[in-house]
Amino acid sequence: MRKQSGAGTLAALALTCVFGVTLLLSLAAGAGVYRRVADRVDESSQSRVSLSYVAALLHSYDEAGMAEAGTYGDGGAVFLYQEIDGLIYETILYVYDGQLREMLCEKDWEQDAEFGDPISPAQALEVSEPVPGLLRLVLTGPDGTKQTADVYIRSEG
Amino acid sequence: MNMERIKPTRSGLFAIELLIAVGVFSLCAAICVGLFVRSEVMSQDSADLNRAVTEARSAAECFKAVGGDLEKTAELTGGQISGDTTLFISYDQSWHKLDAGAEGAFDITLTLRPEDGYTGASLSVQRYDRTEKETTGTTILFWEIAALEVAS
Predict the structure, then answer these.
(1) First-to-last CA distance in chain A?
(2) Structural domain tally of chain A?
(3) pLDDT, tens digit (0-9, with 9 covering 90-100), for B43-99
(4) N or C end of chain A: which has fewer CB within 10 A?
């Protein structure tokens, strides 16, 4: 009788251990999947949102002579112009101090790059024009990955 | 024969109870793991689709910028022309562009469809699952685009 009871206790103990290990494994699997999904969403949105934002702004300023490539801040920049009450204002999209920034000021107004509004983290922005009217934007994300987007300025093509 | 009824011990009953609990828990855990795998696949598909949209949009912008000229589009995008009407741009699993002609995990295919007054094209993105025996392609994106002007 005593022997039977001992075996039963052992089996119960073993089952409790199996239960605990399975619980831990499924928790670890869940946490791992959650971390990977969150990282992927974060990485995907950071680069895509920044480039989509610049591309959308470029299309909204798509008038002859109202969008051009140049340099500002830590490298390349996009200059977008608009006329308000007879004055020309420029919106500059550039990277400075680890952030993609946007600054609106009067054209040729000398303003420090640090005053731009930060949009998203980025290391660098390169802007080139491989063919007339086509702007090639290369954005280096905070983790060093580069993403390229080509934007055709229809009014200049 | 003297049939003596064996009285179950308390620990034995506890073991059976625990066995049932572990069985139910294992079933739930198996379902959860299945859901984890599905969420992982869905998340990867979503990231791929996002990237496919970005790359396809860039290819479409290049196509429009050169007025529908396939050779110039190939130069700008780093793709390869097959026949006279189709352009392929290949990418690896991490969406890095591959050399022309390389077998990638993703392909952008741009097929010309000349119309009166403009050059139309169908633009699609395929994902390839390659094994040693076979290659399976799935279209994850399909657009109809047009270049309205012919570049000089």
Answers:
(1) 94
(2) 1
(3) 889 889 988 999 999 999 999 888 888 899 999 998 999 888 899 999 998 888 898
(4) N
Residue A7, in any domain of the structure: no
H-run or E-run covering A30: helix A2-60
Report if residue A24 sits inside a domain: no
Q: What type of residue sits at position B124?
A: S
Closest by CA position to A125, among listed A135, A134, A110, A115: A135
- The answer to whether the Cβ–Cβ distance between B22 and A22 falls below 8 Å is yes
Chain A CB contacts of B25 under 8 Å are 19, 22-23
Chain A touched by B65 (CB under 8 Å): yes
The answer as to whether A67 is a domain residue is: yes
The Cα B103–Cα B128 span in angstroms is 9
- Give the integer Cα–Cα distance in Å for B33 and B150: 54
Residues of B within 8 A of A37 (CB-CB) are 39-40, 43
- Residue A26 covered by a domain: no
Q: CA of A153, closest CA in chain B: separation in Å?
A: 8
Cβ–Cβ gap A37/B39 under 8 Å: yes
Where would I find the beta strands (DSSP E) of chain B? 80-82, 86-91, 106-115, 118-130, 135-147
Residues near A147 by Cβ (< 8 Å), separated by ≥ 6? A47, A48, A51, A138, A139, A141, B54
Give the Cα separation of B45 and B142 in Å (integer). Answer: 15
Give tens-digit pLDDT for A118-145.
998 899 999 999 988 899 999 998 888 8
Q: Hey, of B7, B18, B44, which one would you mutate to test binding to chain A, going by the most A CBs within 10 A of its CB?
A: B18
A110: containing domain: 49-156
Adjacent-strand bridge partners of B123 = B110, B143
